[in-house]
Design goal:
The protein is α+β, with helices and mostly antiparallel strands. It has one helix and eight strands. It is elongated, with a radius of gyration of 23 Å.
């Protein structure tokens, strides 16, 4: 008696191959510190994402700018603990009834970014604004962290 093997469909082979590529990418990201960026993502990775951010500094402030397009400000949380600024939030999945997906590259789900600042900031003076999908957090340096000008006297 001959046993018939279940042949995988071309579609399931594609998903298996894609899963292997995604696993390989994750391993390479661990080795190279995410040098390849979001070239290939497994379908599950779209539920955890990391929005890009920039950190600037001048003599008085740190400024953190984060791209959060499409998020409502109610879905963004900002916290400061010691020298760590954490921005987290969630982009809910948009339900498209009656539409079949052809290509999906947008990220959904929760995110969290933490920036460790090199000096203390004044937590009572932190200001945040959100406009056109850009979150801007200004963190004034504490007086002790600001550079001091020392006068030199000549005798």
């Amino acid at each position: 008696m001959e046993t018939t093997r279940n042949q995988a469909s071309p579609q399931s082979e594609l998903f298996t191959s894609f899963g292997r590529l995604a696993a390989l990418r994750e391993e390479m990201d661990r080795v190279f510190g995410s040098a390849f960026g979001p070239i290939m993502r497994s379908p599950g990775s779209f539920h955890r994402w990391s929005p890009p951010l920039d950190v600037y500094q001048d003599k008085d402030n740190f400024t953190v700018v984060i791209d959060l397009p499409g998020l409502k400000k109610e879905n963004i949380e900002i916290s400061l603990r010691e020298q760590n600024l954490t921005v987290s939030g969630k982009r809910p999945i948009e339900e498209k009834t009656g539409e079949a997906g052809f290509r999906a590259e947008r990220f959904y789900g929760t995110f969290q970014r933490t920036v460790q600042l090199p000096t203390q900031v004044d937590p009572n003076a932190v200001k945040a604004s959100y406009q056109n999908g850009i979150l801007k957090v200004v963190l004034p340096k504490s007086e002790a962290a600001k550079p001091k000008q020392i006068a030199v006297s000549v005798n």
